[in-house]
Amino acid sequence: MTYQELFQQISTKRSYLCVGLDTDIQKIPAHLLKTDDPIFEFNKQIIDSTADYCVSYKPNIAFYEALGPKGWESLQKTVEYIPKSHFTIADAKRGDIGNTSGLYARAFFDKSSSGLDFDSITVAPYMGSDSVTPFLAFEGKWVILLALTSNPGSSDFQRLNVEGNTLFENVLRTSQEWAGAERMMYVVGATHPSDFQKIRAIVPDHFLLVPGVGAQGGNLEEVSKFGMNKSCGLLVNASRSIIYASNGTDFAEKAKQEAQALQQEMAIYLDKYL
Amino acid sequence: MTYQELFQQISTKRSYLCVGLDTDIQKIPAHLLKTDDPIFEFNKQIIDSTADYCVSYKPNIAFYEALGPKGWESLQKTVEYIPKSHFTIADAKRGDIGNTSGLYARAFFDKSSSGLDFDSITVAPYMGSDSVTPFLAFEGKWVILLALTSNPGSSDFQRLNVEGNTLFENVLRTSQEWAGAERMMYVVGATHPSDFQKIRAIVPDHFLLVPGVGAQGGNLEEVSKFGMNKSCGLLVNASRSIIYASNGTDFAEKAKQEAQALQQEMAIYLDKYL
Q1: CA A60 and chain centroid, separation
Q2: Is the pLDDT of residue A230 over 80?
Q3: Which of A24, A70, A95 sits opposite B93 (nearest CB)?
Q4: Recorded E.C. number(s) (chains A, B) (predicted)?
């Protein structure tokens, strides 16, 4: 999916919501455990009930990997099931020496090899340029690079002072040499809305993937006010607050209500801040 | 495996060699492609022929993941097959918010969930403390944290000047608050032997996992001279130079010769520098 196509989806749906599929076998409603593939059955119903209100889905790879080969099969079926109109994100936080990152790219982008065909993958920057660029060798695919994450530990290294700027600002600047806004996005946590102005000064055009709204406590209006650019430039993720809104048989209906509520709030901010 | 048990293995075998199982379906000998599980068949023969000369095996997870569920099955069989006397490393470079790192820990440490039961996992430090500590919640398991990697891109961020020291020195210092030498190791590339003295001044007791000898050009004697501590404190990895020493039917025999040659060199350095 291209930058323009993504903006088109956002404009049409009045939504920049990404639904995080952090599907944990230990948390899904008990009645699903009787089905052949409880993880896929859960995701399928979540997708059916939320697709109208979001523009993106983000399976969190850890949750599938924790189940071994079966989890991987559930992931394949899930990615296959997501409508082509939705931007898919492998939230994998990968990154290794060039040779190995090339294999991770095969894993998430090359359907003939792994069965998976995501639009994008989240990548950790610590290992530098040659750990990131192999993902960009796959035409039309996106890298979503970690900049400032939403967790408490983000301050351990990301905010260190590096020659007058923070490390995350340095990551934003250096990585622009690897790809532009048409192929790269950045992860910026909703838990740090006051940093968005600083970030937009460095990357005015890029999309930002913003986790941390919902269970982690980020504020959607502040993120939208300080983070939005002229192409919206935001994908705001909510995972647990949507998919675990209920753990009964009404889980899909409750997920729909949560997703719809976020979409309606986003429609207001698109009018106000775009 | 404990610190003392690992040192015992090294002393007994006169080797601190780790064999990297970067097993690529596109590179293994053609005659294996007829077997049911070529990746496992290759690994099995490599393990049989090298086990006497090494103390550790390090499957590079990207290579298995690139093959989807089948790759994951080959990985399970491989880990199961590695003798219990050998320290196993999931070279996965994972790391995410606490909740998610906990799931990655299940993936690599909890056999009842994923089918895998590694002794250790490589972890990227960018997301800080709560991305690392969930792995340490599994008793007896190790975290091997990226410090200074062997690839060209390592200088993009790892060598940035952070308040008078490099970022990788900062990672070494800060992460010591999370676990000691009995539970944590560091990745330090063999391609930077001149840095080992600086690193040993910060982490005198820790084991260092040293990739980059062999295909990447690192010098084993320099690494041993500057990196060894009183418990050896080194696991030196070689992957491609051993496992792809031949791509004919004699691949296992050639791998054995390469591993044995490295072991013999290591025996000399153990006498000289320990």
Answers
A1: 8
A2: yes
A3: A95
A4: 4.1.1.23
